[in-house]
């Protein structure tokens, strides 16, 4: 059972300690489960992010023992993906169902789900999303459900002090304190459930199926399309989701082929993760003598995934600051800014109380960042002040970007690259 795996992961120290490195769209969509074998670009392991949001080849690079290296470093074998990753693909579909109901309530004010209905979707399936989620964030999800049920069907205007139960502002449902409740659930679960699950899998035992499972938890597909935006399933039947969706947005791509990096010598995190999953699959197949190569590749996948999470927080803090300080901004722009801010908060918050050895950022650093950006742990957020007193509060978002850059050793060039989607 997934629960027993996760409990064990929380009780034990993860073997892949992520040591700090040297200085230097919006919503998820439906999940597809087509299995294929694909040709992809070969890269090295985790390196710095580089000036274009990419970075140098690190990790194992070209030093992998010949017997451990993939026969074709550009191909991930997805023959058994749907079978091996059935649990993870089901969890992705369960998140789609939960997020879909909440999105419907934002679209149509006559849709007013109760907290019990939302909890039922969170608890659906074996394993359920709850089973995959850290104990800490389960409580955050339940609190968000209560607030969402109270706000659904209402409209809301930011006020200081807050009044009422919250409601729809622009295109999104917020609590009375300005918390984007759907993003608290969806984007928070990207870390608290899906990254958490992948980190738990990394504890072992690691078999060939485990690599497929980590790939699916990341939100990718063996075809690695490098595309989360194409709506036509005949063009891209397996769009990137969860972490993969945001990794591809942080990775410059070949204009003629999104499955390849713009610069093969300096690939972005999406392509490094792809290369390391290919490497891990080959190492597992090669046998016990390649366990060190396998373990390093999985470690590098998790490290790049976490760095993508931080880079995405930077993207949303910058985007929100721009929208929230637009002169004479209409309500739609201000609401979009508050929504983007809410995404960034949720991406960051979802990493709180993950196993300490499975991440670079500490809970103390997360707590300090959330306090800085008006979403303190254990207190009502002051997010509404970004609207009611923007001149005093919005500058904190830029300070948060600076602090994240320090924590993850992102260069100024990296940070600028993170401010755009690729």
TrEMBL record:
Residue ranges, annotated region (Disordered): 25-79, 222-265
Signal as UniProt keyword: yes
Ranges of biased composition (kind: Basic and acidic residues): 247-257
Compositionally biased intervals (Gly residues): 44-62
Record flagged with keyword Protein biosynthesis: no
Biased composition (Low complexity): 31-43
Signal peptide range in chain numbering: 1-19
Organism from which the protein derives: Chondromyces crocatus
Domain of life: Bacteria
Keywords of this entry: Signal
Name of protein: Imelysin-like domain-containing protein
């Amino acid at each position: 059972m997934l629960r027993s795996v996760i409990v064990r992961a929380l009780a034990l120290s993860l073997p892949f300690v992520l040591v700090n490195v040297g200085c230097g769209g919006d919503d998820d969509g439906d999940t597809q489960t087509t299995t294929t074998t694909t040709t992809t670009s070969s890269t090295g392991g985790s390196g710095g992010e580089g000036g274009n949001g990419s970075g140098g080849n690190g990790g194992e690079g070209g030093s992998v023992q010949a017997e451990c290296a993939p026969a074709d470093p550009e191909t991930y074998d997805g023959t058994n993906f749907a079978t091996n990753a059935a649990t993870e693909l089901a969890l992705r579909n369960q998140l789609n169902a939960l997020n879909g109901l909440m999105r419907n309530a934002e679209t149509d004010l006559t849709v007013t789900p109760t907290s019990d209905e939302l909890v039922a979707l969170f608890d659906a399936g074996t394993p359920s999303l709850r089973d995959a989620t850290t104990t800490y964030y389960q409580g955050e999800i339940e609190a968000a459900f209560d607030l969402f049920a109270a706000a659904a069907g209402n409209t809301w205007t930011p006020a200081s002090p807050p009044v009422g139960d919250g409601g729809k502002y622009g295109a999104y449902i917020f609590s009375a304190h300005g918390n984007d409740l759907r993003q608290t659930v969806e984007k928070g679960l990207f870390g608290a459930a899906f990254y958490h699950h992948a980190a738990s899998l990394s504890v072992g035992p690691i078999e060939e199926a485990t690599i497929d499972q980590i790939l699916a938890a990341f939100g990718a597909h063996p075809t690695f399309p490098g595309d989360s935006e194409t709506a036509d399933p005949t063009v891209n039947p397996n769009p990137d989701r969860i972490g993969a969706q945001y990794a591809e947005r942080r990775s410059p791509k070949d204009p003629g082929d999104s499955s390849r990096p713009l610069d093969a010598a300096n690939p972005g995190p999406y392509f490094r993760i792809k290369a390391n999953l290919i490497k891990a699959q080959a190492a597992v197949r090669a046998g016990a003598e390649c366990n060190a190569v396998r373990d390093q590749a999985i470690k590098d996948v998790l490290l790049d995934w976490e760095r993508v999470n931080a880079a995405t927080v930077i993207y949303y803090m910058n985007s929100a600051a721009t929208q929230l300080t637009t002169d004479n901004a209409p309500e739609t722009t201000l609401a979009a800014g508050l929504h983007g801010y809410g995404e960034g908060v949720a991406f960051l918050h979802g990493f709180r109380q993950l196993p300490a050895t499975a991440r670079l950022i500490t809970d103390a650093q997360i707590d300090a960042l959330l306090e800085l950006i008006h979403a303190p742990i254990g207190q009502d957020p002051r997010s509404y002040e970004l609207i009611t007193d923007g001149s005093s509060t919005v500058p904190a978002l830029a300070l948060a970007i600076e602090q994240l850059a320090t924590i993850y050793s992102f260069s100024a060039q990296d940070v600028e690259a993170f401010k755009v989607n690729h």
